[in-house]
Amino acid sequence: MTVTERSGITVRDLTMEYVSGDYVVRPLDNLSLEAGDGELVVLLGPSGSGKTTLLSVLAGILTPTSGTVGVCGRNPSKLSPDELNDYRRATVGIVFQGFNLIASLSARENAAVPLRLSGMRGAAVRRRADELLAQVNLADRAGHRPGRMSGGQQQRVAIARALALNPPVLLADEPTAHLDHVQVEGVITLLRRLAEPGRTVLVSTHDDRMIPLADRVIELAPRISEDTGPAEELTLAKGDVLFEQGSRGGRVYYVEAGRMEILRVQADGTEEHLIYVEPPAYFGEMGPMLGLPRSATARAVTKSVLTSYSVRDFRHRAGADERARGSGG
Ligand code: ADP
Ligand code: MG
Asked: Which of 49, 105, 161, 179 has the most crowded CB, counting CB atoms within 10 A?
């Protein structure tokens, strides 16, 4: 592998924190990695492990809390707005989980969007767009709109579009997440083929079928909570939110008095009631024990008194208190 000043990706001691309410979520904690020229690097990790966060930092969309990244010798968080525009167009090509194609445009016109934005005009646009579609094996679909293509074909158009200005780095965020088994194959082999001298391909996934093809696998493993603080009693007023779905926390809660609701927030923002938790019962053990983000939100239905425990102390109490039942979270 060769990581030089001018090619590949270097990440040094990268930390990214989000503050949401009372919680600090730190999906990336002192991460360091390298990806060399010509390499296919797979970023493996379950949902919530910070894959999108890392790719967003590399893409110049998020500024990290600390640490540095170098992409072909450039650090996106150090660029001026003009330089950043140029960086996002010409240095990194980005493929998202959803294909984000324009429904009213043909495959060729979709692939041509970055070309037109960069000022290319006339026959050159069509020539280059067709070249791009050939590169992703879709020469015969150039005139088709996204609605008439399979998910795998749409994702390949999105890849063609990301390659339009021939960026030396291609970032793909779970590019196979919405594809069926057969379509995944075509996208994976294409990404493998695109990792060639002059280009680095970094792909996030939780699909382990990509592992055998990777030059390098970076695991973003969620860490088991290191919280060992003592048990604490807390009182919530009616309507108070204890923790939110997607946040990380190390505590498990027993309801001593009152009533808590566990609910899930859907993609469209509506709430799905899961369960009420009343004494003697606990909730919130799943996230901390498995090292995953909270799978649901916890809110007080009435004024409630809770005791919070570290996982270690929780195991202790749960063993001693067999009447209690858990409610996930
Ligand atoms: P992945 O892509 O691996 O699923 P993400 O990078 O999207 O992981 O998220 C990592 C963690 O950071 C999650 O716990 C998520 O809830 C949290 N997170 C992501 N974006 C934000 C944000 N804008 N504000 C607060 N927390 C966030
Ligand atoms: Mg993600």
From this structure: 161
Dist. CA 114–CA 326, nearest whole Å? 52
Which residue's CA lies nearest to atom 7 of ligand 1? 52
Find out whether the beta carbon of 329 lies less than 6 Å from any atom of ligand 1: no
Q: Whose CA is nearest to atom 22 of ligand 1?
A: 18
Ligand 2 geometric centre to CA of 118 (Å): 28
DSSP 145-184: -GGGS-HHHHHHHHHHHHTTT--SEEEEESTTTT--HHHH
- Confirm or reject: Cβ of 287 under 6 Å from ligand 1: no
Q: Please indicate whether residue 50, judged by its CB atom, sits closer than 6 Å to ligand 1.
A: yes
What sign does the dihedral 54-60-61-62 (CA atoms) show? positive
Per-residue model confidence as pLDDT tens for the chain (329 residues) = 445 556 899 999 999 998 876 667 888 999 999 999 999 999 998 888 899 999 999 999 999 999 999 999 999 999 999 999 989 988 999 998 877 899 999 999 999 999 999 999 999 999 999 999 999 999 999 999 999 999 999 999 999 999 999 999 999 999 998 888 888 888 999 999 999 999 999 999 987 788 888 999 998 875 544 667 889 999 999 999 999 888 878 899 999 999 999 999 887 888 999 999 999 899 998 888 776 788 899 999 999 999 999 888 888 887 766 656 666 66
HSE (CB half, 13 Å, CA atoms) of 50? 25
- 46 CA closest ligand 1 atom index: 3
Q: Is the CB of 293 under 6 A from ligand 1?
A: yes
CA 47 to ligand 1: nearest atom: 4
Element housing 62 (H / E): none
* Distance of alpha carbon 286 from alpha carbon 13, whole angstroms: 29
Backbone phi and psi for residue 82, each to the nearest 5 degrees, phi listed first: -65, -45
Q: Tell me the CA distances in angstroms from 50 to 25, 177, 202, 216, one per residue in order.
A: 10, 16, 14, 18
**Residue 248 Cβ < 6 Å to ligand 1:** yes
